[in-house]
Specification:
Chain B: It is a multi-pass membrane protein. Chain A has helices at about 5-10, 20-50, 55-70, 75-95, 105-130, 135-140, 145-175, 190-200, 205-230. By secondary structure, chain A is an all-alpha fold. By secondary structure, chain B is mostly helical. Classes of the chains: A mainly alpha (about 240), B mainly alpha (about 240). The interface of A and B includes residues 73 and 194 of A.
Chain lengths: ~240, ~240
């Protein structure tokens, strides 16, 4: 059997893995994006708890961010992967279903990423909220806005504006963390490269391709976040 | 929650702590040297060195650590005959050394940016004053630039060390039995994910807590100028003499 060239190997020909790798890249993006959005929701509520005057909520939220930022992401993924299935099987057992019920790897991955990135995003949102000028909040209250209206019209747009750089960093973290989801068997970019490497015995070629694809994704997202930042800062004077 | 099970788990997982710390500190030590080199390349104003350092940082910060570990541990196996010829195969065959290499290269990229920030934050007047006193080159670096830069960079570098302790968990994927590796093995044997997670998480939290405290102590020790001067107690006995 003759050795395939690198470009035949990763190309889109009959022996190429091109489509498989591209699909897997899509899967990486999908799981990272879902995890990031879950994290945004979690992060918003945790930031709210951290800023609240309720002592218990604040302690709980501080504990959450300390713990989740202090333990390895891989452990959280194992917890969701094994623990989620065990919990689901137990719940299934109550309703008469027998045996082991697995949680889909995609859901496990998105939830684990979301829970971890929620801790980071909470800190980003909290920091951004503290920059929003008190005067604007008082003005909004004095014209009679209620909490929800004030949140929607005054707080959210400004917090998002100040949070963009921090969110960009968190997105990069999430993207790299999504590679860890491969341990649960979800066929994302790293897993697909692993499979391809095993079946062709060309591990270096596939892992270097995976690395390049990750680089492209991070590069494009850095660019997009920079665009978003300049767009959101239009009309604002910067001290520099 | 079954406390006797958790105690047994703790006793088993604690045996992985030496390896976790070994991986973290070995790679942080090697990584710091490489990072210093990269930071100096960045501020050297020699174009080609600057570009090389930039590219290095871009590549290693832009790809997941796990990909880097796989690339070194599995990927280099593709060149086994060449590596054997060069006598390097015994190095790349060992998961321990592959993990150390990947972690070192990875942390060097992040730390070099921290060091560069520290070096660039050294006030220009200090350098000028030192030059006016006749210092230059290595003496200037050793006496003025380096001590100030270390102080500036230490808080950020502390978080990088914590990140590295967390990152050692990835070595478990290439068969290293450190804390996460042992935890994963136990989970797959007993399927009691929650208890084992709590114990393993507590071990990491304790490790990171201790490391943060040590960094804070070093910070305190390195910045005597920010501390309040010790109050000089008047010697009351002397007054009576």
């Amino acid at each position: 059997m003759q050795q395939l060239s690198y470009f035949e190997l990763i190309g889109f020909g009959p022996n190429g893995w091109g489509w498989a790798l591209l699909t897997a890249t899509g899967m990486t993006l999908a799981v990272a994006l879902c995890g990031f959005l879950v994290g945004s929701v979690v992060g918003t509520f945790v930031a709210w708890a951290k800023l609240s005057r309720n002592m218990a909520a604040r302690t709980l939220a501080d504990g959450y961010t300390t713990v989740l930022r202090g333990i390895p992401d891989l452990l959280v993924i194992y917890l969701f992967y094994f623990g989620g299935s065990a919990a689901l099987s137990a719940i299934g057992g109550l309703f008469g279903a027998e045996g082991f019920i697995g949680v889909p790897a995609f859901v496990t991955g998105a939830l684990a990423i979301g829970i971890v990135s929620g801790a980071y995003q909470a800190e980003v949102f909290r920091g951004a909220y503290q920059v929003v000028s008190r005067g604007e909040l008082e003005a909004a209250r004095s014209v009679g806005m209620h909490r929800w209206l004030m949140f929607r019209r005054i707080v959210a747009p400004q917090v998002l504006r100040y949070a963009i750089p921090g969110l960009g960093n968190t997105w990069q973290l999430v993207l790299k963390e999504s590679a860890l989801i491969s341990v649960t068997g979800l066929v994302e970019l790293l897993r697909q490269s692993h499979i391809a490497a095993g079946s062709t015995r060309r591990p270096f070629d596939f892992y270097i391709t995976a690395a390049l694809l990750y680089l492209v994704i991070t590069w494009v997202s850095t660019y997009l976040f920079q665009r978003a930042e300049t767009h959101s800062m239009r009309g604002m004077r910067r001290a520099s | 929650m079954d406390f006797s099970f958790m105690r047994d788990t703790f006793l088993q997982l604690i045996t992985g702590v030496p390896l976790t710390l070994n991986l973290a500190f070995t790679s942080v030590a090697f990584g710091a040297v490489l990072a210093m080199l990269l930071a100096l390349m960045r501020i050297s104003r020699i174009r080609i060195l600057d570009i090389i350092a930039r590219a290095y940082v871009f590549v290693f910060r832009g790809t997941p650590l796990l990909v880097q570990i796989f690339l070194i541990y599995y990927g280099l196996g593709q060149f086994r005959p060449t590596l054997q010829e060069w006598g390097l195969w015994s190095f790349f065959r060992e998961p321990y050394w592959c993990a150390i290499l990947a972690l070192t290269l990875n942390t060097a990229a992040y730390a070099s940016e921290i060091f560069r920030g520290g070096l660039q934050a050294v006030p220009h007047q200090q350098v000028e004053a030192a030059r006016a006193c006749g210092m230059s080159g290595f003496l200037l670096f050793r006496r003025i630039v380096f001590p100030i830069a270390v102080r500036q960079a230490l808080p950020a570098y502390g978080s990088e060390i914590i990140l590295m302790v967390k990152a050692t968990s990835l070595a478990s994927i290439i068969t290293m039995m450190e804390v996460t590796g042992l935890a994963a093995k136990l989970i797959s044997q007993t399927f009691r994910a929650v208890e084992i997670f709590v114990v393993a998480g507590a071990i990491y939290l304790i490790l990171n807590f201790v490391i943060t405290r040590i960094i804070m102590a070093i910070e305190w020790w390195l910045s005597p100028h920010l501390r309040r001067p010790p109050s000089i107690e008047p010697k009351l006995e002397a007054a009576h003499v």
